[in-house]
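3.2 Worked example (two chains)
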Amino acid sequence: MNAVAQVFAVLAVLVHLLAFTWEVVLFERPGVHEGIFKIPTANLPATRLWSFNVGWYNLFLAAGPVLGLVLLHTGQDGAGRWLVLYCCGFMLLAGIALGVSDLLALSRPRGAGLGGALAQALPPLGALVSAAF
């Protein structure tokens, strides 16, 4: 796997680690739940379980490319490459799903959260495209 694909994979990991931090560690801060996720403080109790679960999901998903890159650099090229590619494919599809769900949202302006969907989808897309060359 070339260096460009590896850099994109690391960027994808960093995006998911940031999401974990926002969704689990910092979610109750108004700047996070209101500023980033557009969730009013009054709705915080109803959304806390969601954010906690999704945050851990993002952490576990970030672990895949990390393990893949470790395998890649310790002589397990095939396993490492496929783990990175699988996890990046998963991240890309999840980013697309996030974008679609944002566009279908009825409770806020459509497209308000497309930045998050692009941040989740573009780095793994970069890894997948770069790995093809």
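3.2.1 Second chain
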Amino acid sequence: MKSELSSLIKNFKNSHYEQIQRPFIIAEAGVNHECNIDLAKKLIEDAANAGANAIKFQTYKADTIASKNSPSYWDTSKEKIKSQHELFSKYDKFWKSEFEILKKVCEDFKIEFLSTPFDFESAKFLNDLMEVYKISSSDITNKPFIEYICSFKKPILISTGASNVDEITEAAGWIGKFKIKFSIMHCILNYPTEIKNANLGMIKDLQNKFPKNLIGYSDHTLPSQMENIITATLLGAKVIEKHFTHDKTLPGNDHYHAMDRDDLYLLQKKLDLLLESLGSFEKESIKEEEIPRTNARRSLYYNKNINKGGVLTKNDIIAKRPGTGIGPKELDSIIGKKLKKNAIEDELIDQKDLI
């Protein structure tokens, strides 16, 4: 299956005159399959049917991602577990064979397969399964790991949650040495992210500071706030990543701030309306304006009755609708002309009646 995301990143060309386009949408399933292969397949089917361009999982082992005393960084009122190691231990059962199965299912449903690796081993075997790598916000300062992923010479998405510009610049430098294309994703590393903390304006800052890179947005706001994604699209985000689940009512992990199939379908409809309303990016009158263009504009009319031979003054002329005659911009050329006939108030001025 040809990677649309790889092509999008590789062929990106920055322009100040750039049309808003439908973003490439990644349904971030993460580990919301809860290590159930049938649920994982359902997530793929739901994402594909709702119009996502790709579905992304996460690949890790608890022992290599977090120490046993690692504290939480999520909303513990939603996810009760307070240890990273303990939480990751619940969802680290999928490995190479499971992702090979899911890759095949993605091919069947014609949706691009992605998974974020969190260690060297998974990064290696995922190379055979995908054309684009995703680097988590948590690894933006992990130079050895970034360089290892770069060694596969594939395009990269890198999230920037909790990072400053100098850290992004440094990571961009590590990737840049390998001469591969990469996309920078605006992200707030906060689950869930409140609207007041979304800081979508940072998308524009990333575009200005990294003009050679495609800029995207990884969203952690609640699914009820999907207008955030519409705004990000208007700001020029070309890739949108949003957590995805089969059941938003499930407790814990990433279910509570994820979209489901219906949400994603609704988002697609909103994007349809957005792009339809944006229309052309070149200003001109359209076919549906042809009648208003004439009837709502003005022409020059006689403002009073004037006898034949009279000389027109400014007070003799008024601009009224419709615009079927001499336009108001020609007023100065009409003043001082002599009438060949009697003029009647509210009559359209005609050049053939003037000397």
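3.3 Remarks
The radius of gyration is 30 Å.
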